[in-house]
Structures are given as structure tokens and as C-alpha cells.
């Protein structure tokens, strides 16, 4: 039982480290997104959704570098084109979530002031997009760590079975453990 607790604790600690690293990369991406969005919107006077898409695309590039070389640096690197394709696909879905919320707020609800645009895009949209991205990146894009964990788990199964059968045979051979036959 204590071995299972250690395993669970170890997995939770690894997940906490992964979330912290993903969050740190995301914080940098957030700043990039915020600065580029507001520069496009207020300095270049681009349309709101166009500004959002440009900002998100620049942040996606920054986030890929951070996630590939820091958060998931131990993930499988042999299939880089597959990884990048999936990263861009799921980032694109996140882009649609993020900027869809902005479009609904700006054009659907007519909340057109700069504060409303920033809240819709950089708080609500980015928050929902981030949850989706975290799930999809760790599930589909940067998968090697999960595979290693599964392989190590399967490798330990025979050892666990052997130790259980050994414990059961010791318990049945002790004098106080014999049952009476009728």
C-alpha cells in the first residue's frame, strides 16, 4: 500500500511540475499575446479579431519553443514533424476558441471598448483556450512521458505479482493460518 502511495505521490508531483512549467511558458505567451494584441489594435489600428489572430499566432510560436525545449524537453523528439503538426492543429483550435470569444463579445454583444476587448480575449478566451491546449498538448502532442510511465508500470507488474504470491504462500504456510476442514 505504501508503494502505491509513493507512486501516486510521485505522479502528482510530476503533474504539478508539468503544470508549473506549462504555466510559466503560458505566462510569457500571455504577455506576448497582450502586447502584440494591443499594439496591433491601438498602434496599427487593425480590426479587433485580426489583431487577436496575429497576437495569438505570435504567442503560439513563443509557446512552442518554451514547451518543446523546457516543459516537455524529455518527450520523444524522433517524430518532430508529427509533433509540430499536432501542436499547430490544437493551437489553431485554441486560437478559434480565444478569438471566437472576442468576436462574440465585440460584434455580438457590442462590448467594443478596449477593456472589454482585453477581458474577452485575454481573460475569458485565453483561459478557455489554455485549458483546452494543456489537455491536448499533454494527451496528443508531447506523449513520450506518458508512454514511459505506462511502460515502467507494465514492467513492474510481474514483480508485484511475484511479491504477492510470495506473501500469500508465506501466510498459508504459517501454523496459525490453516483453516479447519469439516
Question: What string, H for helix and E for strand, traces the elements in order?
Answer: HHHHH
What's the overall average pLDDT, rounded? Answer: 82
Q: What does the radius of gyration come to?
A: 25 Å
Strand content: under 5%
- Residue share in helix: over 70%
Question: What does the largest sheet look like?
Answer: none
Beta-strand segment tally = 0
Would you identify the regions where 5 or more consecutive residues have pLDDT less than 50? 177-182
Describe the protein.
This protein is mainly α and 182 residues long. 84% of the residues lie in helices and 0% in strands. Helix 1 runs antiparallel to helix 4. The chain is elongated, with a radius of gyration of 25 Å. The C terminus is likely disordered.
Short account of what is shown:
Helices cover about 85% and strands about 0% of the residues.
Which descriptors would you attach to this protein?
single chain, about 180 residues, mainly alpha, about 85% helix, disordered C terminus
Please write out the topology:
Elements: H1 2-43, H2 48-71, H3 80-108, H4 114-141, H5 144-173
Helix pairs in contact: 1-2, 1-4, 2-3, 3-4
